[in-house]
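Re: that backbone. Tokens:
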């Protein structure tokens, strides 16, 4: 019967509803907002009480329709946290209007009474209960049968057990005691009331029945189709028990693999059944489980199995299990709520769905919801962004419902299980996932078991299994259950009894092609599928096949694998696909209970195959479209890719269809020719080749290999393997046997070996077995914690089979003793293996022992690493002992307690490998040495108790070079044990004992080793922080000479005792004991230890605690110590007392050369010694010149000594004591006081003692505040001490006093007479003002022989200059006074200029007020010539008149320079009046004065009667082109002009004296035909003159018949100008020089010039360089040259020649007839051998030839032979330049034969001529006979050391040699040594260039010693000569002896900060140095700062370059804006860019 309507229930229960809703009035009003209008809500809210509000709400609700009312109550009941209504009332409200179940009697009795209510609720009037639920009373009658009645839109079923509805309300009211009351109960107690529990249990029973029936029906159907039955144990679930948050990192979206290998921190995977998987406890609110699996692994069937197992009682923890397939949910387009989703889409309750839903909402932890096939969900891309809701009654989309359940918003606490393919799960937010499982596919055993069940015939089963084992690719397909079923279906057809030997497929594509024909043959009688049968079937079903392929393609393009009726193309195709087994059909239930049929391909790979087939046979898809669609799967896909994505196997099937075997198949299906098919196949293959060249990730490499394998194209596989040679790197994804199979196929197809790197890739052992068939693996890498011993065992079986394997890496593979035992046995057979890496495993001591035991048998092994393998100290010692048991071990390194362990080997036990760091020329010698072995046991917990065992190992170890025991725990006790046995160790290089807990007591026993162990050369100890203890041994034997490059030990170079010319290296010893806390008590013991220690080079005791007492004791011990180089006692807490004590040792110890002390932050304390004599000797030198020692004999000649004191604040008394000590020191040459805060009194005390320092040369005071009084005191030192030569003071804190050199008396002879010394006073940047200079000049009046006075950069001003002018006559300055940059004005300039008149000995005044303000006064004893240069002073008119009046009185003025004063025309007119009175004036410079052309012409007119020859210079911006021509024209109009020169915008006009008027000429030529008597030279250089301007000048030039020189440099007059020249040149009968360089003429113009030059018989010099010659021009010039009988110089350099061989030959022939030639310059003319022969024939007659330049003329050895014969007739030759030819040894030999004839030869340039030592030696010998040679250039020839040795014999015979250039000539140390020995005897040499020669330390050392004699040297180039800091000190010292050195190039060597410091110390002494190049060295900021500090004393240095940056001085005004303190400032100079890169 029908229940009462909702409004009837509301009316009948109105009061009770009002009372219940009043309690939740606020929630009630919220629920009504979506139903009532705003006005209605406002009315309700206006009521005061809740009862009133609810009453009005119900009244308004009664006006709405029934559906709205019911919806309101349903929502209110669901969302309310408390139970608002009593249970009976709630049921009435929820079931109002629905069909109900009633007893049969009630239905009959009430059939006619429709108005009677079925159920009536009676309220118990209890006013005390308030908002509590009222009881509902229902009469209970007898049980009756039940009949279901249907009504309404939805089918609802209800069951009433043992109860019925009361027949009338009165009965219920009357029997209130019999009725039971339902009191209010909250939470679970209420939800578990019998009524709801019964409904819930009924629904569960219904669900169990429904699930069981459906599952059993499907099970029977699968059995008939022989599919995999889910009850069979073929499938397992693997739990991934790891960090689920890292799931994204572990899933590879480019492949359909499930998971990659878990991380190192994760646990191993465990196999579990479904119950275990779902029963795992989790703490998360929403328990979400993800089950992953490939397509076809049975995930969907497994979900049905879950339901079935729940129905069988397995998953008893769940009350309900709901299963939803996404293919079903995809059909839901409308919004639904949770209740509709659960009941309408899965199973509808038969009765009271509301109660069941309430149970579900209240018990979510008992609910399991299964979502199957998330990869098929159309909304998967939007799960992250979908809206979520916690309201179960809110209608949502399917995606929003899923997101709300997934994120725990709906049914929080329920269990959700989702299945998906791995790559699609990345669309889910994985942070809420509890655990992940994997549905595993088949393995081989399960495949065999399934085959036994599938094939009933045992023979057929056996043949199928054999075929699968033989064809691994097909076997791999069977790992997927769905494809396994398809494979077996096909094999069942193919392996019929009538088939003897079936053609079974070998690739996946071939198999699917075969499967297609097998499916098509269903229903046919023929059991065989022959080729003809297949073709017939394909033709028959072509149309349908096209249709099903098109469907598959569209599905993939839309990411759709499920098809419905609207998706299918036609009913015909649907029937075809279904009947032949391509599609499966299933029913899908929709929300409106409509059943719809869905279709899907039997497996996704079939759909992919058909989609690929569609692209190959569809004529609408072109080759280009096919190419664009073909790509490998990427790990990262964009959102756009989702719309048009290819799935996993489409590209593989496309590749397979591109194979040759598929051509006929595709041709048949496409109904096209095979050529048409071939074009498409070619497009695919081209794509594969192109992909192989790109940068592919690991998954893409595998995909590419799959594609290549499918083609079965060996040529393609070879190409791909070649491209992927170095790219086989596979990381963090699962590798299957199929992957490894295809990978092996590609690798084996390649021609070369590869590196296969597999890291973190999960794989089966079967994959390792497959790798054993790979023959081209050179390096094999595995890294994964999951591999373990079983993996190692399998690997040990295959590595002996891989014959190409050279390197095996097994890191972090969890291999233990068991695994390494298998591997070790296998390694014995791996004779090809060279390197093994077993780091980070679990080998332990036993495993390491097993490994090292087999090392002697591994002959090819080069390196093995096995660190971090849990071994102990005993294990470490066992490893160390291997160096004795295995003879081919090179070194063993173990550190960090065994975490790092490595053993390296020789290639064989007898090999002596070459040191590859040597230059090629050294390898021969180095190869004779045996490479030493090394043992490193660092931080290995070795203690004293292990020393004995270690000693036993070391004593038996041969050829041990280095031993490293640092970081252990030996302490003093262990150290003493080690020292006792140390002399027995055969160690030849170094022992490292750092960080072993050694104390200062243990240090002293180490010092004794220098005596105990003769081979010990250095002991270095530091106990600061990280302790350093290094013991270094000698590498050489006593009787063996060691090359410097092969020896890094400190050595002294000494003369051989036999007196030969070689320098013998003597090894010196070093002792460094720093930070050892040494005090006075330790010194005596140390002194006793070192007393008899010979050859101690350096002693370092810095950073100890000696103090003054210790220093005093140390000075007492100093004479007993045989230290030859350096003692370092820095930072020892000394005071001034200790400083004075150390200063005294300069006198007490003879061989001390330098003491450097600092009491400041650096705490420096250095004592340097003069070692043994290092001067180079050779026999010739001994014969020709006495050495230093020979000259001095046995006299007591003091060694030059230096003392440097820094930060020693001294008072007068201390300075006095210091001076008294230093006065006793003979040989003290330099005293430097830096940052000592010296007061004026202290400086006075110092200067008073200055004359007592007999040998002092330099006194330097730096970083000291120098007061004005101190400046005057220092200036007065010129008067105090007559030996003072130069005083230089800077107020910035720097002062220098240089004294006269001391000359030793030799053999009792007296001093040679000396001229009076020149004395210099420089007070630059001292802030001197007028008052200061007055005092200064009073001092200087008494100074004798003062040569220079520098007062620049002060504050003199005009007043100071006036004072200077007044004092000038009293000053005895001999040369110059510099007052530049002193803030003077034009008035001050006038003072300076006036001194020309007032002071008779002033010869020149030079003033410029422009920055930097140069102002000089120059003097001469005999002032015959006066010069005034006043530039850029910008005089005003008044000052200009004063200046002119002063100049007018200087009658003897010869030069007047007024450049850049902007006088203008008016000033020039005033100047003319003055100039005409200066009768001795010879030069007038008026450049840049703003003078016009008219003013210039006026000046020339005024100077017509000037009595002397005068040169006038102009420079103005307008002088160019037309204006330049006007100016020349103007000058030519004056008859007294003798020379006109225009260069750029500068004009020089020379006027003759007035004698020109003796001729009868007018003052100005007006007759255009008149002759010009004076003009002899016209020079126009790059002044913009072109043909039109030259044409205008031609008539004037033509009127100069006396013209001697005509120069038109770089003016583009072109061929037109050549024609003009042809007209005017014949006029000049006396013309001698014509220079037409770069005037833009071509071959035609050259012909014109040649024609006119024929008439210039007097011509002597022709320059036609930088023009175009051409064949015609060359020919014509060749004809006219013999006519020019006076020709002496010819210059055809840089001519662009297109003349060819014939033209140059004619030119050469013409030159050969010019017998008076003196210079021939044919640079780059390309004469070649034939031209050289013609020229040489004429050279025999050129007796006057002096210069021959044939650079880059392509002359070979034949041409050189001819030239040699020609040069034989040129005895006057001075220069021969054959640079850049190829004369080779043959040609050089011919030149050598004629060299003795060339007695005047000065320059010989044979650079880059392919000359070797063969001719180089003879050339060097021949040079002995050319005593005039000044330059030798042999660069870029392979002349090597042999030539250098011969050249060293010749150099002493060349007294005039200035330049020696041997750039890149393959010299080594021997050659450098020989050259250096001979260069000592070349005092005139100015340039030595030896770059890019490997002369090394030894050669540079020799050269450094030779520099001491090269007083004329200006440039030294040692770029890339391979020397380092060990010779930097000697090189710097040698450069100091070169007073003229200007440029030093030391770039691209190994100089570091130490060498930079040595150079910085020497820089101030190189007074002429301008450039120092240190680029490409190892200098850091520390070295750069040292150089920068040194440069503050070197204003003469212009550039220091290093690290591609420049250290340079830039001239800036004093007040220039340079606010950055980063730059050191020196007056007006700023030091920039001094910090290196």
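Recovered sequence:
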């Amino acid at each position: 019967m029908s229940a009462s309507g909702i409004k009837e229930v509301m009316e009948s229960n109105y009061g009770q509803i009002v009372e219940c809703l009043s309690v939740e009035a606020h929630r009630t009003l919220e629920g009504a907002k979506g139903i009532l209008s705003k006005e209605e809500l406002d009315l309700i809210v206006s009521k005061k009480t809740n009862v009133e509000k609810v009453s009005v709400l119900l009244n308004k609700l009664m006006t709405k329709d029934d559906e709205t009312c019911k919806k309101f109550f349903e929502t209110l009941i669901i969302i309310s946290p408390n139970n608002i209504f009593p249970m009976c009332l709630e049921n009435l409200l929820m079931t109002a209007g629905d069909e109900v179940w009633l007893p049969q009697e009630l239905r009959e009795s009430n059939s006619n009474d429709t108005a009677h209510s079925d159920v009536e609720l009676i309220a118990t009037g209890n006013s005390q209960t308030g908002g509590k639920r009222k009881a509902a009373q229902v009469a209970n009658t007898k049980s009756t049968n039940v009949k279901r009645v249907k009504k309404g839109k939805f089918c609802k079923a209800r069951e009433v057990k043992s109860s019925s509805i009361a027949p009338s309300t009165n009965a219920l009211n009357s029997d209130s005691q019999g009725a039971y009351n339902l009191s209010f109960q909250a939470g679970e107690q209420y939800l578990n009331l019998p009524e709801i529990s019964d409904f819930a249990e009924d629904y569960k029973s219904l669900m169990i029945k429904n699930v069981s029936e459906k599952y059993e029906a499907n099970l029977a159907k699968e059995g008939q189709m022989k599919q995999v039955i889910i009850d069979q144990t073929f499938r397992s679930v693997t739990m991934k028990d790891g960090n689920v948050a890292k799931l994204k990192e572990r899933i590879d979206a480019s492949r359909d693999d499930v998971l990659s290998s878990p991380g190192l921190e994760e646990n191993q995977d465990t196999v579990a059944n479904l119950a275990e998987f779902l029963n795992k406890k989790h703490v998360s609110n929403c328990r979400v489980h993800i089950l992953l699996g490939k397509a076809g692994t049975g995930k969907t069937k497994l979900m049905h199995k879950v339901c079935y197992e729940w129905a069988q009682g397995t998953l008893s923890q769940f009350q309900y299990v709901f299963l939803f397939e996404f293919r079903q949910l995809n059909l839901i387009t409308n919004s639904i709520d949770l209740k509709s989703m659960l009941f309408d889409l899965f199973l509808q309750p038969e009765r009271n769905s509301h109660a069941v839903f309430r149970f579900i909402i209240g018990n979510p932890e008992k609910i399991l919801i299964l979502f199957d096939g998330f990869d098929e969900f159309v909304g998967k891309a939007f799960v992250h962004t979908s809206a979520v809701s916690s309201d179960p009654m809110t209608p949502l989309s399917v995606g929003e419902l899923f997101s709300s359940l997934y994120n725990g918003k709906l049914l929080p606490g329920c269990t959700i299980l989702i299945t998906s393919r791995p790559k699609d799960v990345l669309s889910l937010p994985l942070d809420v996932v509890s655990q992940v499982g994997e549905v595993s596919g088949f393995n081989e055993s399960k495949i065999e078991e399934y085959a036994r069940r599938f094939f009933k015939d045992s023979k057929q089963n056996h043949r199928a299994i054999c075929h699968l084992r033989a064809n691994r690719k097909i076997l791999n397909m069977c790992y997927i259950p769905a494809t396994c079923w398809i494979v077996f279906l096909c094999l069942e057809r193919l392996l019929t009894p009538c088939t003897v030997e079936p053609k079974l497929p070998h690739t996946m594509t071939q198999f699917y092609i075969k499967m297609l024909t097998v499916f098509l043959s269903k229903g046919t009688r023929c059991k065989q599928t022959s080729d003809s049968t297949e073709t017939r079937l394909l033709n028959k079903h072509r149309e349908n096949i096209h249709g099903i392929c098109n469907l598959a393609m569209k599905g993939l393009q839309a990411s759709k694998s499920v098809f419905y009726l609207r998706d299918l193309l036609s009913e015909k195709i649907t029937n075809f696909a279904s009947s032949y087994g391509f599609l499966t059909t299933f029913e899908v239930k929709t929300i409106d209970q409509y059943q719809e049929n869905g279709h899907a391909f039997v497996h996704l790979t079939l759909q992919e195959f058909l989609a690929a087939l569609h692209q190959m046979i569809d004529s609408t898809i072109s080759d280009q479209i096919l190419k664009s669609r073909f790509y490998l799967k990427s790990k990262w896909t964009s959102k756009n890719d989702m719309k048009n994505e290819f799935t996993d196997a489409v590209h593989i099937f496309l590749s397979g269809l591109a194979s040759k075997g598929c051509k006929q198949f595709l041709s048949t299906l496409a109904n096209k020719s095979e050529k048409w098919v071939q074009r498409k196949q070619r497009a695919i293959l081209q794509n594969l080749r192109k992909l192989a060249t790109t940068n592919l990730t690991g998954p893409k490499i595998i995909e590419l290999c799959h594609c290549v394998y499918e083609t079965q194209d060996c040529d393609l596989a070879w190409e791909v393997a070649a491209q992927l040679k170095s790219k086989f790197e596979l990381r963090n994804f699962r590798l299957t046997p199929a992957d490894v199979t295809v990978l092996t196929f590609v690798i084996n197809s390649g021609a070369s070996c590869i590196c296969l790197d597999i890291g973190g890739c999960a794989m089966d052992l079967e994959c390792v077995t497959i790798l054993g068939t790979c023959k081209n693996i050179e390096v094999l890498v595995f890294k994964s914690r999951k591999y373990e011993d079983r993996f190692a065992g399998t690997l040990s079986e295959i590595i002996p089979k891989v014959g190409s394997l050279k390197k095996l890496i097994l890191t972090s593979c969890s291999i233990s003793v068991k695994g390494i035992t298998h591997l070790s046995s296998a390694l014995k057979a791996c004779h090809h293996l060279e390197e093994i890496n077993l780091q980070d495993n679990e080998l332990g001591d036993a495993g390491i022992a097993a490994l090292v035991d087999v090392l002697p048998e591994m002959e090819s092994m080069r390196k093995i690493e096995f660190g971090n393998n849990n071994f102990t100290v005993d294990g470490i010692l066992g490893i160390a002992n291997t160096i004795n048991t295995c003879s081919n071990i090179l070194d063993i390194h173990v550190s960090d307690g065994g975490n790092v362990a490595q053993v390296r080997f020789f290639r064989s036990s007898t090999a002596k490998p070459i040191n590859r760091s040597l230059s090629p020329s050294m390898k021969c010698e180095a190869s004779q040495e045996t490479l030493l072995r090394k043992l490193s046991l660092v931080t290995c917990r070795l203690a004293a108790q292990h020393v004995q065992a270690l000693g036993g190992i070391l004593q038996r170890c041969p050829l041990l070079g280095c031993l490293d025991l640092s970081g252990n725990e030996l302490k003093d006790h262990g150290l003493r044990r080690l020292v006792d046995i140390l002399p027995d160790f055969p160690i030849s290089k170094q022992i490292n004992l750092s960080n072993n807990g050694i104390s200062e007591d243990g240090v002293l026993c180490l010092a004794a080793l220098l005596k105990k162990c003769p081979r010990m050369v250095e002991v270095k100890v530091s106990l600061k922080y990280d302790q350093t203890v290094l013991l270094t041994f000698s590498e050489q034997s006593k009787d063996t000479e060691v090359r410097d490059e092969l020896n890094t030990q400190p050595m002294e170079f000494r003369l051989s005792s036999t007196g030969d010319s070689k320098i013998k290296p003597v090894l010196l010893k070093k002792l460094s004991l720093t930070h050892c806390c040494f005090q006075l008590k330790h010194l005596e013991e140390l002194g006793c230890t070192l007393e008899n220690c010979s050859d101690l080079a350096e002693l370092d005791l810095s950073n100890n605690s000696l103090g003054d007492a210790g220093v005093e004791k140390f000075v007492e011990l100093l004479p007993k110590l045989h230290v030859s180089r350096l003692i370092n006692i820095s930072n020892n807490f000394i005071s001034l007392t200790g400083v004075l004590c150390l200063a005294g040792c300069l006198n007490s110890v003879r061989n001390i050369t330098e003491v450097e002390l600092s009491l400041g932050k650096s705490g420096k304390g250095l004592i340097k010694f003069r070692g043994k004599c290092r001067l180079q000797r050779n026999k010739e030198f001994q014969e020709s010149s006495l050495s230093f020692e020979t000259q001095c004999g046995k006299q007591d000649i003091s060694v030059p000594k230096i003392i440097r004191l820094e930060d020693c604040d001294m008072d007068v008394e201390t300075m006095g004591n210091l001076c008294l000590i230093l006065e006793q020191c003979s040989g003290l040459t330099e005293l430097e006081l830096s940052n000592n805060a010296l007061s004026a009194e202290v400086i006075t005390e110092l200067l008073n003692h200055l004359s007592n320092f007999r040998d002092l040369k330099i006194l330097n005071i730096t970083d000291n505040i120098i007061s004005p009084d101190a400046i005057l005191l220092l200036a007065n030192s010129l008067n105090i001490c007559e030996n003072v030569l130069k005083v230089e003071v800077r107020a910035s804190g720097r002062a220098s006093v240089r004294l006269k050199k001391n000359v030793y008396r030799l053999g009792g002879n007296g001093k040679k007479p000396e001229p009076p010394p020149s004395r210099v006073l420089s007070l630059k940047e001292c802030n001197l003002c007028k008052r200061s200079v007055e005092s200064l000049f009073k001092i200087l009046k008494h100074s004798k022989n003062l040569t220079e006075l520098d007062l620049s950069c002060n504050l003199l001003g005009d007043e100071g200059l006036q004072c200077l002018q007044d004092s000038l006559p009293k000053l005895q300055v001999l040369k110059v006074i510099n007052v530049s940059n002193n803030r003077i004005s034009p008035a001050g300039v006038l003072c300076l200029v006036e001194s020309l008149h007032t002071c008779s000995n002033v010869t020149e005044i030079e003033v410029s007020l422009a920055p930097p303000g140069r102002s000089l006064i120059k003097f001469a004893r005999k002032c015959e010539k006066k010069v005034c240069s006043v530039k850029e002073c910008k005089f005003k008119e008044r000052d200009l008149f004063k200046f002119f009046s002063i100049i007018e009185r200087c009658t003897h003025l010869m030069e007047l320079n007024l450049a850049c004063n902007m006088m203008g025309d008016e000033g020039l007119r005033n100047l003319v009046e003055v100039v005409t009175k200066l009768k001795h004036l010879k030069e007038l410079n008026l450049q840049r004065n703003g003078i016009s052309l008219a003013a210039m012409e006026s000046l020339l007119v005024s100077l017509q009667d000037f009595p002397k020859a005068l040169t006038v210079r102009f420079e103005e911006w307008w002088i160019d082109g037309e204006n330049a021509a006007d100016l020349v024209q103007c000058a030519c109009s004056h008859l007294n002009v003798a020379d006109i020169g225009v260069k750029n915008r500068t004009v020089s006009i020379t006027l003759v004296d007035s004698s020109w008027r003796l001729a009868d000429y007018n003052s100005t030529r007006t007759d255009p035909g008149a002759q010009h008597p004076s003009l002899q030279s016209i020079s126009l250089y790059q002044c913009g003159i072109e043909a039109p301007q030259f044409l205008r000048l031609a008539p004037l030039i033509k009127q100069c018949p006396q013209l001697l020189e005509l120069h038109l440099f770089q003016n583009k007059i072109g061929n037109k100008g050549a024609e003009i020249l042809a007209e005017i040149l014949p006029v000049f009968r006396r013309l001698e020089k014509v220079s037409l360089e770069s005037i833009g003429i071509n071959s035609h113009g050259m012909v014109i010039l040649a024609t006119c030059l024929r008439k210039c018989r007097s011509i002597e010099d022709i320059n036609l360089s930088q023009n175009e010659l051409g064949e015609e021009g060359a020919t014509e010039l060749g004809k006219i040259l013999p006519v020019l009988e006076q020709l002496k110089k010819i210059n055809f350099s840089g001519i662009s020649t297109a003349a060819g061989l014939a033209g140059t030959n004619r030119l050469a022939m013409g030159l050969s007839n010019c017998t008076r030639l003196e210079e021939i310059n044919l640079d780059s003319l390309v004469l070649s051998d034939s031209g050289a022969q013609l020229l040489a024939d004429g050279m025999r007659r050129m007796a006057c030839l002096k210069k021959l330049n044939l650079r880059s003329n392509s002359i070979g050895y034949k041409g050189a032979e001819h030239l040699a014969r020609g040069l034989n007739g040129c005895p006057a030759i001075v220069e021969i330049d054959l640079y850049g030819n190829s004369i080779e040894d043959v040609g050089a030999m011919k030149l050598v034969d004629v060299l003795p004839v060339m007695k005047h030869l000065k320059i010989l340039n044979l650079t880059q001529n392919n000359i070797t030592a063969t001719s180089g030696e003879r050339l060097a010998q021949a040079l002995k006979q050319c005593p005039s040679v000044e330059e030798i250039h042999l660069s870029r020839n392979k002349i090597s050391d042999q030539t250098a040795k011969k050249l060293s014999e010749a150099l002493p015979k060349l007294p005039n040699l200035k330049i020696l250039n041997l750039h890149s000539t393959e010299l080594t140390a021997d050659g450098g040594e020989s050259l250096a020995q001979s260069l000592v005897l070349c005092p005139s040499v100015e340039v030595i260039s030896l770059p890019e020669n490997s002369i090394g330390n030894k050669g540079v050392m020799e050269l450094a010693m030779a520099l001491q004699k090269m007083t004329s040297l200006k440039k030294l180039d040692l770029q890339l000569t391979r020397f380092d800091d060990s010779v930097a000190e000697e090189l710097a010292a040698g450069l100091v002896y070169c007073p003229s050195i200007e440029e030093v190039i030391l770039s691209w060597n190994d100089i570091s900060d130490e060498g930079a410091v040595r150079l910085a110390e020497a820089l101030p002494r190189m007074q002429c140095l301008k450039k120092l190049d240190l680029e490409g060295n190892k200098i850091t900021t520390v070295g750069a700062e040292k150089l920068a500090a040194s440069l503050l004393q070197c204003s003469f240095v212009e550039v220091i370059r290093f690290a591609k940056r420049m250290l340079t001085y830039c001239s800036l005004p004093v007040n220039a804006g340079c606010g950055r303190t980063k730059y050191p400032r020196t007056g007006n100079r700023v030091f920039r860019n001094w910090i290196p890169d």
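The chain has a mean pLDDT of 79. The radius of gyration is 54 Å.
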